[in-house]
Design brief:
The complex is a heterodimer of chains A (about 250) and B (about 600).
Chain A (H helix, E strand, L loop, with lengths): L1 E10 L3 E11 L4 E5 L6 H8 L7 E6 L2 E2 L5 H8 L2 E4 L11 H6 L8 H4 L6 H13 L15 H14 L4 E5 L7 H18 L2 E5 L3 H7 L2 E6 L2 E6 L6 H8 L8
Parallel strand pairs in A: 3-8, 3-9, 6-7, 7-8
Antiparallel strand pairs in A: 1-2, 1-4, 4-5, 9-10
Helix pairs in contact in A: 5-6, 6-7
Chain B lengths: L5 H25 L4 H5 L1 H15 L4 E16 L17 E5 L8 E7 L6 E7 L5 E8 L6 E6 L6 E20 L1 H34 L2 H4 L4 E2 H32 L5 H22 L10 H37 L7 H43 L2 H31 L4 H22 L5 E2 L1 H17 L3 H12 L3 H25 L3 H9 L4 H35 L7 H10 L3 H29 L1
Antiparallel strand pairs in B: 1-7, 2-3, 3-6, 4-5, 4-7, 8-9
Helix pairs in contact in B: 3-18, 4-14, 4-16, 4-18, 6-8, 6-9, 6-10, 7-8, 8-9, 10-11, 12-14, 13-14, 14-16, 15-16, 16-18, 17-18
The chains are: A alpha/beta (about 250), B alpha+beta (about 600).
Chain lengths: ~250, ~600
Amino acid sequence: MLSIQNLTKIYDGKVLALDNVSFEVNKGEFLAIIGLSGSGKSTLLRCINRLIEPTSGQIIWNNLSITTSSQEEMRFIRRKIGMVFQHFNLVSRSKVITNVLSGRLGYINPTLSLINRFPQSDVELAIKQLERVGIADQAYKRADELSGGQQQRVGVARAMMQDPEMILADEPVASLDPVLAHSIMQYLEKLNKEEGVTILCSLHFLDLVHEYADRAIALNQGKLMFDGVPTEIDDKKFKNIYGQEAKRVG
Amino acid sequence: MHKQKPLVRSIILGIVILIGMIIYGYGFNVTKVNFETTRSEKRLTQLSRIMRALAHPSIFVYEKEENKADVPIYLPCPKDSLPDYSPNKSGPYLVLTPKCAGPGETIYIEGYNLWPNTKGPINFVAFSGVNLTIGHLHTDANGYFNAKVQLPKRKPVDEAQMIRAISRRNIGNPRFSDVAISTWEKIIETVFLALLATTFGTMLAIPISFLAARNLMSDQKASLTNIAFSIISWPFGIIVGIRLSSLVDNILKKYFTDNNLVWNILGSVIGLTIIWFTIKTLFVSPTKDTNKNKTKYFHTISIILIALTSICTILICANLAITVGQSLIEPLGPIGFMGNFMSQLGDVINMIMPISVGLVTGGALSFVCGKISYHISNKMSPIMISITHTSSAIVAGTVIGAIIGNTIEWFYQLDNQIYTLIWPMIIGAIIGLIISVRTSPKYNMPIGYVSYYIVRTLLNATRSIEPLVMVIVFVVWVGIGPFAGSLALALHTIAALAKLYSEQVESIAPGPLEAVRATGANRLQTIVYAVIPQIIPPYISFTMYRWDINVRMSTIIGFAGGGGIGFLLQQNINLLDYRAASVQMLAIAIVVATMDYISAVIREKFV
């Protein structure tokens, strides 16, 4: 279970990105995070695995305090939290398989990993994960030779390699077309339903939220505006989240 | 903007032109511009002589044979009648008109039956046997020549002296001149000098470039107490490390003497095996168990043991390399240099071992102390925390002060401990106190930025000194020759490349970096998996470019004693042997142009 209490992030002492945000996520939940660009969605997700240091507040996960963990404890926590990014964040000059294998870096012998040695079992697992997302035949290509949709599947496979208890997905489908978007969302849904992985996913399109999420929270200028079932978002709440000028699309 | 009056504008323009004239006038004066010298006849002949010599690089030489014709000459004409002289007309002979003359007078020489279409000198062979070249001959198709020569102004001698015409012709095929052969040797030396300098420079520049990259360093933060503990433990660790490695070395020397091959081989094999297995089994990634104290102690002790084993093994391997290398020089014959290479590598390891063990121990100790301070400060009462905070900062300041003081003492030998030890320590302590008062114990200092700026400053300072100047220091240290040159070039390469590299690191895409960090990778893993793949192409490109620069630089580093072709070139210029110098210039031009081309091709492939 993930519990976020009074989380605040101020960049460089000036820009308020998260303003006293508190909520809880149950194990096995599919939580959508919605809000305008710049509303603090990415900051929130990155604070959870401390890629960004929160200014104040607490994050507690499985009775471990993420906010006060040391760097080493943080590695131990991070390897159980997979992350999927909007721009895939693959190492474009490395092979697909290396990108997927890098999901195991928190587990394997650090010294040997420096000379690119992975246990055979991990290599097999990587191929298996690539099979699950349907691109096992691309394993030995360079990552930048793949199309956008394929690259995001590599991103999902990398997160799956971590054997995660939770996946943070930062607008995973924002740079994909609607068909690809659904296929990526389906992989996440499958992980959520079949393996009980908790998923926190920031999304732009409300139809995707309605289709895949169990619950949604909404941020506006760093403040938590909404926390509930997606179907509860009526026109009034919608305007609260997206501003008075906004119109529904899709 | 209002329009200026035409008069004002003209005056301003006039003043500007006047100032320009003054500036250039003074410039001409300072640089001693004198176009008259360029037209002076004497200098023009010298110029054409040099240009012609440069255009005739003495690359090829022929074996020569000579054909001589002698004729007696009286200088001056004898008082009584001239003795008869009738040459043997079947061979080469000379006819003088007139047959005798006073010193400094001009006579007319004709030669017959010399080799056709040949050249050679006309010599005056003095009574003492001294040869003076007084002219040159150029025979026609019949072996005939005529020339006007001026007789030397010498002391009058009664006896007959001689004029000798020599015609020379080439026999056999051309062969490379000695100049060409030595130039070839030196240009090879030059290219390899540049190669070694680039390689060593690159090897050291890569890790330094990470320290000088803002995006890798900016998130490095630590509390003041933590930093202070690290600073205090660094010098201590270095001293301990150096002591330790010399101690191990001495113990090893007793059992693994240089000629005990079997022991050396056995030692290195066993050592390497132990290290390999420990790395495989011990350095597994953190599990829940690692937080238990028992495993922690076990871990720490094994790390210390493995470190000791590594020191022993590396030293044994180095000894082995020296022994084997030395004994291979003879039997390998023409590739005996590989034996020397091996033993030199062993020697390098032996040499840098104490320093690196010192640095590693220092680093490890400071890491451990930082850790301890972190844990203590989590358990202490607030008052104790601030006491530790302040006192550790003061002690750290004192330590830095003492180090700076010692450095000053080493350079300037002031021999006054009040200035070189006491005052720096007091000042350091005061600065430490001020910093500790101004920061709260919880505040995380941006230590990454501090080291970033320190590294940057050092790099910029080193880069601003030309290798041609650096080599002077190295020549004093290791003697005149290519070794000094490569050290100087390597040092400059480190500074220049580290800066270029670090700028490449700063421009990498941050996305993959955070993705790899998010998987729980540690700092080194992040660098290996997210940074290095992104920087390989620019690194290769910059390294090639640097090799190119180093080749060019190494052609002149010999001017300052750094070996390579520059040494030969300077020598020949000083000896006024322009035909030889021309060979070296040609060689430099060819090598630089080739390098330019090759590096361009390789860089194109990678970028």
